[in-house]
Specification:
Oligomer: single chain
CATH superfamily of the largest domain: ATPase, nucleotide binding domain
Order of helices and strands: EEEHEEEHEHEEEHHHHEHEH
Strand content: 15-25%
Largest sheet: 5 strands, mixed
CATH topology of the largest domain: Nucleotidyltransferase, domain 5
Distance between the termini: 11 Å
Number of domains: 2
């Protein structure tokens, strides 16, 4: 592809989507957002995306003929080989099985690439964020669940049917907490912010009017609440254990931590890094960089375009 081509990036979340014009230098030229859940998903998400994309291009006076392709970051398990939604959260109607790639290619007559939102986030961070100079990258996003993606020798690890990288669902406790996926002891049942909140609620007494969430917990930790600090340390230990295993398998140069808690440098990122470095074998520490994500909410949009450019380059 020629330098300074312009692409369309679409980042489809569970409730809202972002759309942007992105050039081949990774600059977002224009961006907009819109709801995809405005009527409880009775209007299929893909219909809402096409309608708003048409309006976005019309507003800017841009013809699809001037674009080089469309990169899509999408919620759910995405078969990147076919560009379809292979798995979906149960509350999202009319999404499972959606042939996103085919619909957009037929409508816009442009190359289209589709990947899971967490996979796009790691692609974005490698292109323009915290892993710019790395060829092997692991990223986990810590939030309601745990997502992530893996890059091996500059290629997104996609697996045999295009859905690799479910980093929240490898087992860390064989008889552990039941998971929504049907298994027990999955990583996200111990490493998510949801897991941290659950631990705090189970082991501490709070006034009924206090909302226990990640912000509250880290605020209490910053104020020196010893009970909270002990729970926080155990939680960080569990996150570190999973990452140590992934580091020993994939030997990355960079491990990126995303999600809202990644902004907590002193209370989260620094102790997590220390625990990982204590546990990994010495040779795996060489050239290893552990850091917070840099791109925030733009990671998926940029990563979708990066993935598209990679796919087109491989053709």
């Amino acid at each position: 592809m020629q330098k300074n081509n312009t692409f369309l990036g679409i980042d489809i979340g569970g409730t809202a989507a972002k759309i942007g014009l992105v050039n081949s230098d990774g600059e977002i030229l224009e961006m907009d957002s819109f709801s995809v859940s405005f009527d409880g998903y009775q209007t299929p998400i893909i219909e809402t995306v096409v309608k708003n994309t048409d309006a976005f291009l019309k507003r800017l006076g841009i013809s699809e003929k001037t674009l080089s392709g469309i990169g899509v970051s999408a919620t759910g398990q995405i078969n990147v080989l076919e560009g379809t939604v292979a798995g979906s959260a149960g509350h999202i109607a009319n999404w499972l099985g959606t042939p996103v790639k085919t619909i957009l290619e037929e409508h816009y007559h442009l190359p289209v690439a589709v990947a899971n939102d967490a996979n796009c986030a790691v692609m974005g961070e490698q292109w323009k964020g915290a892993a710019r100079d790395s060829h092997n990258v692991i990223m986990i996003t810590v939030g309601t669940g745990v997502g992530g993606g893996i890059i091996v020798q500059d290629q997104l690890l996609s697996g045999s049917v295009g859905i690799a990288g479910e980093l929240g669902h490898f087992t860390v406790q064989k008889d552990g907490i039941p998971c929504t996926c049907g298994n027990r002891g999955c990583y996200e049942r111990y490493a998510s912010t949801t897991a941290l909140v659950r631990r705090v609620k189970e082991t501490s007494d709070f006034p009924s009017d206090v909302v226990i969430d990640g912000r509250y917990i880290f605020r209490q930790a910053a104020e020196g609440n010893q009970k909270i600090l002990c729970i926080l340390e155990e939680w960080i230990q569990d996150i570190a254990v999973g990452l140590v295993g992934l580091i020993h398998i994939f030997n990355p140069e960079t491990v990126i931590i995303g999600g809202g808690v990644s902004q907590q440098e002193e209370l989260f990122i620094r102790p997590l890094k220390e625990k990982i470095l204590e546990k990994i074998m010495p040779c795996f520490r060489e050239n290893l960089h552990i850091c917070a994500a840099e791109l925030g909410n733009n990671a998926g949009l940029l990563g979708a375009v990066a993935f598209l450019m990679q796919c087109e380059k491989l053709k």
